[in-house]
Amino acid sequence: MSSPKPAHNADTVTARLTTLPGWSYADGWIRREFATDGWRSTMLLVNAIAYLAEAADHHPDLGVHWGRVEIRLQSHDAGGVTDRDLDLARRIERLVHDQPVGWITG
User: Per-residue pLDDT for 35 more than 90?
Assistant: First the structure.
């Protein structure tokens, strides 16, 4: 396996997040929370995110709750946020915006 890409500094991450509304940067992580219409929708979203993450060989931190999902992304091997995290965040956004209206909000 190749060595990890270096983590971006806070200014770079913040600038890149301007193309990802709803995402924020704090404590070395990019974060996003989605509201759902209940447990079933929460689990569908979590499983879809897990599928994307596994395909990207990535392991996000997820908070799973009755009506919401919290996502935190960081490349642990790089010690911060890399392009890989930002790419997964974009994929998650596409996934959410391609779903039926009403069951996930951000």
Answer: yes
Whether 19 has a pLDDT exceeding 50, the answer reads yes
What are the sequence ranges of the domains in the chain? 10-105
Q: Could you write out the three-class secondary structure of the chain?
A: CCCCCCCCCHHHHHHHHHHCCCCEEECCEEEEEEEECCHHHHHHHHHHHHHHHHHCCCCCEEEEECCEEEEEECECCCCECCHHHHHHHHHHHHHHHCCCCCCEEC
CATH architecture of 10-105: 2-Layer Sandwich (3.30)
What's the pTM value of the predicted model, to 2 decimals? 0.90
